[in-house]
Amino acid sequence: MAKSNGEGEGAELVFVTHSPEETRAVARRLAAGLAPGDVVSLEGDLGAGKTEFVRGVVELFGLDGERTVTSPTFTIINVYEGTVPIYHIDLYRLEGTYDELENAGVLECVSDGEGISLVEWGERAILELPSNTIRVILIHLGETEREIRVLFPPGKPAPPEEASSPNAQ
C-alpha cells in the first residue's frame, strides 16, 4: 500500500520478502512503472539483495536475470540490452564525488534519458544523482527475509495498488 512520507514528499511502499525470488518479484512490480530516464538508487548492506533486485528488473525487460546480471563491482557499469537499455552501476569501490562519477561514466548514464539506471550503493552519491531518483532501501530482517522500502520522489507516483505485491504495507 502506498503512503505519503510527509508534506512535499513522494509516496513510500514497504514490502517484506522471504526469498530471493520474492525480492525479484517486488523488483518486477516496481519495474513495471519505470521508463527511460528513470534512476533507481539501491541501498543496503552487503548481501541485502541489491543485485537480486536488479535481476528482477531486467527480467521485466525481456532478459534472463539469473544469466545476464553480474555485479559490476570492478567494471563500475554493466549495460543490459533488453527492450529498454538498463545501466547497472555499482558504486561500492567509489566515494561518490562528482569528478569520480564523471570520470567513470556514471553521470552520463544517469542523465542520458534513453535507459533506466540502477545504482547499487547509490547512497554514496545521492547528492550527485538526479533529484527525481527513486530510492530502494533493502534491510536484512533474517537470513533470507528482507524489508524493501521504495521511496518515490515528489511527482513520481507509486505503481497502482494492483501492481504492488500482496504483502505491501
Q: Short description, anyone?
A:
The protein is α/β, with parallel strands linked by helices and 169 residues long.
What does this structure look like?
- This protein has a single domain, classed as P-loop containing nucleotide triphosphate hydrolases (Rossmann fold, 3-Layer(aba) Sandwich), CATH 3.40.50.300.
- It has 5 helices and 8 strands.
- It is an alpha/beta fold and 169 residues long.
- The chain has an 8-stranded mixed sheet with strand order 1-2-8-7-3-6-5-4.
- Helix 1 packs across helix 2 (50-60).
- It has helices spanning 20-31, 50-60, 65-68, 98-104, 106-111; strands at residues 3-4, 11-17, 39-43, 77-81, 85-90, 116-120, 134-140, 146-151.
- The protein starts with a strand and ends in an 18-residue tail after the last strand.
- The chain is globular, with a radius of gyration of 15 Å.
Topology (elements, then pairings):
Layout: E1 3-4, E2 11-17, H1 20-31, E3 39-43, H2 50-60, H3 65-68, E4 77-81, E5 85-90, H4 98-104, H5 106-111, E6 116-120, E7 134-140, E8 146-151
Parallel strand pairs: 3-6, 3-7, 5-6
Antiparallel strand pairs: 1-2, 2-8, 4-5, 7-8
On the 0 to 100 scale, the average pLDDT is 88
Shape-level CATH architecture? 3-Layer(aba) Sandwich
- Low-confidence parts lasting 5 or more residues at pLDDT below 50? 163-169
The Rg value, from CA coordinates, equals: 15 Å
CATH topology: Rossmann fold
Tally of separate helices = 5
Order of helices and strands: EEHEHHEEHHEEE
- Given helix and strand content, the structural type is alpha/beta
Helix content: 10-25%
**Biggest sheet character:** 8 strands, mixed
Residue fraction in strands: 25-35%
